[in-house]
Design brief:
Length: 304
C-alpha cells in the first residue's frame, strides 16, 4: 500500500513512518524541515516537504495514498486550528475514494484522572483543560467513517523510547540538576507505551478492516511516576534522587499542561489486543531505563 504520514520526522510520526516502510509499504513522509529529508530517505521513506496549513503542497501525494496517517503536531496557540485543518485536508484527500483509511492520533489524557480503576474506549471522557478540544476533533474524525472511507482514532498513552518525549525530562533534569524532576508526589501512574509498540499498532490498524473505531494504545506496566523517575535518575548517574515540584507551582510555571503530567491513569488496551492481535513487546519504562537513557543521550547528542 502507499502510505502518507504527517509529522514523519516527529517523535511518534518517525516511528510510525518507519514501521510502515519496514512492513513493505511505499511510505511518504511530510516534513516541514528540508534538512531532515535525509533522515526519511535513510529509512526508505519518500520525503514530502510542507506544513500542516499548506495542504496544497502535499495534497496530490495524499490523494494517491490509500492510507493517510496524521501524527503531526505544533505546540503553539494555533495547535488545534492546525490539527483540524490538517485532518480536514486528509479527509478531502481520502473521502469519496474507495478503500481509503485515515488514522488520527489522539491521546489518553482525554479520559482525565481515572484513579486505579481501568477505563476503556467506551468510558466517558473527562479531558483536562489542556486537551479539552480533543474529544470534539476525535468525534469529527469518527463521523467521516463510511462509504468506503475508514477512519480510526488511536489514543496513545505517554510514549517513551528513543529521544524520550515526556520521559526525556527525567533524564535531562537528572543529568543537569542531579535529580529527576516530577510534578506532584509521584504516586500517580501514567498509562504508557513504547513508541515502537505504538507504531506497530498503526500498521495493524491500517491493514485491518476496522473503521469508525477508537483504539487505546498502552502497555501493561503499572509503575508509579516516582518509580519511573527514580529509575531514570539511577540510569543517568544521579543516584536515584528525585525532585518534587508541587502541582500548583508547576501549573503557574507551565500552564494547564502541568495538570496532565499529574494525572493518575489506568487505561485498558484490550480492544487492540483482541481485535488486532496487538501485543506490546516492551516491558515498561522501569525495566528498560538504562537502555532508554542511552537512547536519549545519543538522540540528544545528535541534535547538538
Amino acid at each position: 500500500m502507499r502510505v502518507f504520514v504527517t509529522g514523519a520526522t516527529g517523535f511518534i510520526g518517525s516511528a510510525v513512518a518507519a514501521a510502515f516502510a519496514r512492513a513493505g509499504h511505499e511510505t511518504y513522509g511530510l516534513t516541514r524541515n528540508a534538512s531532515r529529508a535525509a533522515r526519511l530517505e535513510a529509512e526508505e521513506i519518500v520525503p514530502v516537504e510542507g506544513t500542516m496549513e499548506e495542504a496544497d503542497a502535499w495534497r496530490s501525494v495524499a490523494e494517491r495514498c490509500p492510507v493517510l496517517v496524521h501524527c503531526a503536531v505544533e505546540y503553539s496557540e494555533r495547535t488545534w486550528d492546525l490539527h483540524r485543518a490538517a485532518l480536514g485536508a486528509l479527509r478531502d484527500a481520502g473521502r469519496d475514494r474507495a478503500g481509503r483509511v485515515l488514522l488520527a492520533t489522539s491521546g489518553v489524557w482525554v479520559y482525565g484522572d481515572t484513579g486505579d480503576a481501568a477505563v476503556d474506549e467506551s468510558s466517558p471522557l473527562d479531558p483536562p483543560t489542556h486537551v479539552a478540544p480533543r474529544p470534539a476533533v476525535d468525534a469529527a474524525v469518527l463521523s467521516w467513517n463510511g462509504g468506503g472511507f475508514r477512519t480510526i482514532v488511536i489514543r496513545p498513552g505517554c510514549v517513551y523510547g528513543g529521544a524520550g518525549s515526556l520521559t526525556a525530562s527525567w533524564f535531562e533534569t537528572a543529568s543537569k540538576n542531579g535529580a529527576a524532576r516530577v510534578i506532584g508526589d509521584g504516586t500517580n501512574r501514567w498509562a504508557m507505551v513504547h513508541r515502537d509498540d505504538l507504531a506497530d499498532l498503526y500498521v495493524r490498524a491500517a491493514e485491518s478492516g476496522l473503521g469508525g473505531e477508537v483504539l487505546n494504545a498502552t502497555d501493561r506496566s503499572r509503575a508509579t511516576v516516582l518509580e519511573c523517575a527514580t529509575a531514570a535518575s539511577l540510569a543517568a548517574g544521579a543516584g536515584g534522587r528525585v525532585e518534587h515540584v508541587p502541582v500548583e507551582q508547576a501549573v503557574a510555571a507551565m500552564g494547564p499542561y502541568a495538570t496532565c503530567l499529574a494525572l493518575n491513569q489506568h487505561v485498558d488496551s484490550w480492544k487492540a489486543v483482541r481485535r488486532l492481535g496487538w501485543t506490546p513487546r516492551h516491558g515498561g519504562f522501569v525495566d528498560g531505563a538504562v537502555r532508554l537513557h542511552a537512547a536519549w543521550r545519543a538522540s540528544s547528542a545528535g541534535t547538538r
